[in-house]
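Much of our argument rests on the idea that a fold can be written as discrete symbols. Part of our work consisted of pairing the sequence of a single chain with a tokenised description of its backbone. We regard such an encoding as a compact summary of how the chain folds. The amino acid sequence and the backbone structure tokens for this protein are reproduced below.
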Amino acid sequence: MTDTGFDSPESGAMVGFPPEFCRPIATRVSGDDAYVLLNTGSMTQPYLYGVNCRRENGRWFEGGSANGPGWEQTGHDPDVGTLSFWGDAPVDADMVRVEFEARVFEEPVIDRSFLVVWWRVRAPHDWPRVQAFRIAGRWIDSDALRRQ
């Protein structure tokens, strides 16, 4: 741990993890806030872990972290925070389609994982859900994939 921070949110997020066993999968940044999705397992047996980071005076610091997606207060207002939604994707998927608050968002799949982040939002009553994955150029409904 360092009191001086790090050059990147990824470096800040990896505090405490041996670099030979941990690597960033995806990062989203909004102003001085960032969310980093890490693989703390192996390529054959990934273990996803998410970390909120904050930039202060040009340096990045680790904030709250968890082994599951969720909402976390990230400022002084107790009702406003960062909502992360991430998980595993099918082997050949290259995009995910996520529905949240009657809107649809599409994000890339990287190393069989996806990450979607919403900034400065209230904790949701209805959580985001995976609608579909794009595999070989075709969107396949997530319910159809579960039945396979």
